[in-house]
Design goal:
The complex is a heterodimer. Chain A is an all-alpha fold. Chain A has a single domain, classed as MetI-like fold (Orthogonal Bundle). Chain A is built from nine helices and no strands. Chain A starts with 5 loop residues before the first helix and ends with a helix. Chain B contains nine helices and ten strands. In chain B, a hairpin with a 2-residue loop joins strand 4 and strand 5. In chain B, helix 3 crosses helix 4 and helix 5 runs parallel beside helix 6. The longest helix of chain B is centred in the C-terminal third of the chain and has 16 residues. Chain B is globular. Classes of the chains: A mainly alpha, B alpha/beta. Chains A and B meet through helix 6 and helix 7 of A and helix 2, strand 6, helix 3 and helix 5 of B.
């Protein structure tokens, strides 16, 4: 092990981490938005919405993320639409969030369906309309149920964001690989990258498990 | 107050209710008894349309409520229901469970709703549990809160779907006592239960169901002491 390259190249890791955080943050955020919409379509009584959502989810889960990334980046040629050098980052965020949305949708759907049927019946028997029962009774319970799975999905997004290095985004993985190239040392820069990813994912799960603990007061 | 005419309900190929007729007068306590799978819970759940019947009429205070143009939510506000599995909302404490629907649906002020909830909790003997979450209550306590929650909407009729079936024996009594008091106060009640002594004591009329039909109905005296049908005699011999 030789980390003598670090004083000279540490900034690569810092800049890379910034981009990784930026991309992951927006991907998770948009993933939740897509996922929520998709899950509502999936549990709705409208057959067409249901079918669109179901096929979308199946397709996103059944095809490789890298293929999806190339379709968005080369196929849709986002760079030529957006310009200003943001095209690749936006392609990355769009792909990750479209992909994550499919998983989030399934998590939300299973969380809603896991709430005991009697809860809806009790709410309806009191005279609550369906939407009100969902809002006050079903969603709060579903949210608590799905939080662990959701945290897991966020962690997956952070890790999978490394794949966007392939379209030349200077995030953590890309920059670690750059350092590997210029220093002719493979092991150390990649170990540093791995440690930074590990730090990001564990601190995220720590923060969110605190939130989970707070939601558990009613148990 | 409630009238059911020619009610039919199927679950796929299973014909659970076959041309059932039932009448419940104001202030009356009707107890439905019968073996498991006889359709008694389904009949009860058809009264507030938690189950939608395929055929027949459910008439509540002169209005046919199994009709597309009926706002079932406003009808349900006048029909309280108590379930076998309590179905308290676990994400809310006791007082929130009771006040949620009066505040949101009847636009009662939160203070008024809370005062009403406290007095209801007093009447079921649980005023000290107002800020507890349901998970901290025993089964009997949960069911009493569930009764208070239904009563908070000031319903015209209360439907009880095997309210003591999920309770330990020593908790059955505390729930039955609350129901007895309610009956004495003149509440119209329809009760599905396996508690024969309670049915005898509290019921104005007993309805015996088997195989999706009402086999026999009458006063507790008629049903328990002079059963006519062989099926009812056989059923009562198990108790």
């Amino acid at each position: 092990m030789n980390f003598e390259f670090l004083p000279k190249y540490y900034n690569f890791f810092i800049q890379g981490t910034k981009y990784t955080i930026l991309i992951s943050f927006f991907s998770v955020l948009l993933g939740i938005v897509f996922g929520t919409i998709l899950s509502l379509m999936r549990i709705s009584n409208n057959k067409i919405l249901k079918m669109i959502s179901t096929s979308y989810i199946e397709f996103m889960r059944g095809t490789p993320l890298m293929v999806q990334l190339f379709i968005i980046y080369y196929g849709l040629d986002v760079s030529s639409i957006v310009g200003g050098g943001f095209g690749d980052i936006i392609s990355g965020i769009i792909t990750l969030s479209l992909n994550s949305g499919a998983y989030v949708a399934e998590i939300i759907r299973s969380g809603i369906q896991a709430v005991d049927k009697g809860q809806m019946e009790a709410a309806r028997s009191l005279g609550m309309p369906y939407n009100m029962a969902m809002r006050y009774i079903i969603y709060p319970q579903a949210f608590k149920n799905i939080l662990p799975a959701l945290v897991n999905e966020f962690i997956v997004v952070i890790k999978e964001s490394s794949i966007v290095s392939i379209i030349g985004i200077h995030e953590l993985m890309y920059n670690a690989d750059t350092v590997r190239g210029v220093t002719f040392r493979a092991f150390e820069p990649l170990i540093i990258a791995a440690l930074i990813y590990f730090l990001l994912t564990t601190s995220l799960s720590k923060v969110l498990s605190k939130l989970e603990g707070r939601l558990r007061v009613s148990d | 107050m409630i009238e059911v005419k020619g009610l039919n309900k199927k679950f796929n190929s299973l014909h659970v209710l076959k041309d059932v007729d039932l009448k419940v007068e104001k202030g009356e306590v009707v107890v439905i008894i019968g073996p498991s799978g006889s359709g008694k819970s389904t009949l009860l759940r058809c009264l507030n349309l938690l189950e939608v019947p395929e055929g027949g009429d459910v008439i509540f205070e002169g209005i046919k409520i199994n009709d597309k143009n009926i706002d079932i939510n406003s009808i349900r506000q006048r029909m309280g229901m108590v379930f076998q599995s309590f179905n308290l909302f676990p994400n809310m404490n006791v007082i929130e469970n009771i006040t949620l629907s009066p505040v949101k649906l009847k636009k009662v002020s939160l203070d008024d709703a809370k005062n009403k909830a406290i007095s209801l909790l007093k009447s079921v003997g649980l005023e000290d549990k107002a800020n507890y979450f349901p998970s901290k209550l025993s089964g009997g306590q949960k069911q009493r809160v569930a009764i208070a929650r239904a009563l908070a909407m000031e319903p015209d009729v209360m439907l009880f779907d095997e309210p003591t079936s999920a309770l330990d024996p020593e908790m059955v009594k505390e729930v039955l006592n609350v129901m007895k008091k309610l009956a004495e106060d003149g509440m119209t009640m329809v009760i599905v239960t396996h508690e024969m002594n309670f049915a005898k004591e509290v019921g104005d009329r007993i309805v015996f169901m088997d195989g999706g039909t009402i086999v026999e109905e009458g006063t507790p005296e008629e049903i328990f002491n002079n059963p006519k049908s062989d099926r009812l005699k056989e059923f009562l011999s198990h108790f």
